[in-house]
Design brief:
Two copies of one chain form a homodimer.
Chain A lengths: L8 E12 L2 E9 L8 E2 L2 E3 L6 H13 L4 E9 L10 E10 L12 E8 L10 H18 L11 E2 H12 L5 H10 L3 E4 L12 E4 L1 H9 L1
Parallel strand pairs in A: 1-6
Antiparallel strand pairs in A: 1-2, 1-4, 2-3, 2-7, 5-6, 8-10, 9-10
Chain A binds a DNA duplex through α4.
DNA sequence: CCAAAAGTGTTAGTGATACACCCATGT
DNA sequence: ACATGGGTGTATCACTAACACTTTTGG
């Protein structure tokens, strides 16, 4: 570039969702440094020169949760002039869906603590992170309606009850069991697996997604 | 900020759509400078420190077309490391829908010419602009399906024929006149205006969007 | 009276919703 | 036997899609 203009900084922020304890959870970090020191925030960080936006998001995600097998989607880019008191910072937001198993939360340098919050009990957030979270939640619901993204919150093999629970938690309402099963089956995306009797009660039929469908979700 | 890291540059690119001559058109500019000198590209430019992303997009839009009354929506942020041979440039893409009346195309410093291209006759584009355009087109169609955004391509008062034409052009297929009218009317968004007999043949009923609906489209 | 676009209703099919009972298992 | 979640079918309603003729105007 011939001339050097003053440039904004660019960060990625990642709204990380999971579901456990019958609740939709978001990962927040407690800020260790100013501004907003001591306040909760959506995890994120500066984009390095040698990584794409998505790579930056994946790096942050892996640093925070240790998890790699996730659904990750770009949300929106927030660029108001005064959204960061330190100066001009543009943030490219992402949201991620991680399976609740095998997550290891780890704090990084800028952050003293990382914790899952129920979506119904979100504390006051730093920067414009409230707006970002609301946007993420809207997109999440929207996406669940017309895609199979929800399945990325479940293990390889799952039951109809599990996937219905996910939907009921995210949409905060009950669905009719029969209609739900009917619809899923009519989509022709399920492969029946062998039943395993592990816990108790009547053992449910387990399913997995057909191979080609799994690929669709990766791209989605 | 305590430390100064090397920062990427940030641009906005705007895919500007309109409809005339029974075709969906995109505005492209011919590049006056390297890289990709002489090639067609999506209009855009660097984000200034004192303007938000949306302001930057509006400024570019107004510089290119002289038009202010537009629908503008952020699309996606492209940040691959090598998308610009000059160095690290992250671009926040937008798309805009402008009414075909009263557009004044004007070339700027970096650009020798601005021209409308039919969506079916797009030349080879600079940078990753082909990808951006494809993304914009996908979003446009998607948006037309479940929102009233299409109306922002029409003047205040319009006929059912006009709006149906827009849909037929964008989706590249014919719709049944009766079903189309029925659906629109059932949405309860139309205000009937007085018929003006201007051209010839049987004069069509003109409509406008109800006031509260217009506001919805602004936000959409 | 001809050309051109506007206007208008009915039918069949498809997908969504509402609803209640029996089943398989572990304790 | 009972407690717990799993599994299944039918009837109604709403929405979508297919389809053709008459009307209004200008020339």
């Amino acid at each position: 570039m011939e001339k050097e203009f003053e440039k904004p900084s660019v960060t990625v922020d990642i709204v990380i969702f999971t579901v456990f304890e019958k609740e939709l959870k978001v990962l927040l970090v407690k800020r260790n440094i100013e501004p907003f020191k001591g306040m909760w925030a959506i995890p994120g960080g500066f984009v390095r020169m040698n990584e794409s936006l998505e790579d930056a998001a994946k790096r942050e995600l892996s640093e925070e949760t240790g998890v790699k097998d996730v659904y990750l989607e770009q949300l929106y880019t927030f660029g108001d002039i005064k959204r960061d008191p330190r100066g001009r910072v543009i943030t490219v937001s992402y949201y991620a869906l991680v399976k609740p198993e095998g997550i290891k939360l780890s704090a990084s340098t800028d952050v003293s603590e990382a914790k899952w919050f129920s979506i119904s009990k979100i504390p006051k957030l730093a920067f414009d992170h409230k707006k970002i979270l609301e946007y993420a939640l809207k997109r999440l619901k929207w996406k669940f309606e017309y895609s199979l993204t929800a399945f990325s919150l479940l293990p390889e093999k799952f039951t109809l009850g599990q996937i219905q629970n996910i939907y009921e938690i995210v949409f905060e309402k009950k669905f009719d069991k029969r209609n739900f099963a009917k619809k899923l089956k009519s989509l022709n995306i399920l492969k029946t697996e062998t039943i395993e009797k592990n816990v108790s009660f009547r053992p449910p039929q387990t399913y997995s997604l057909k191979k080609d469908i799994k690929e669709v979700i990766e791209i989605l």
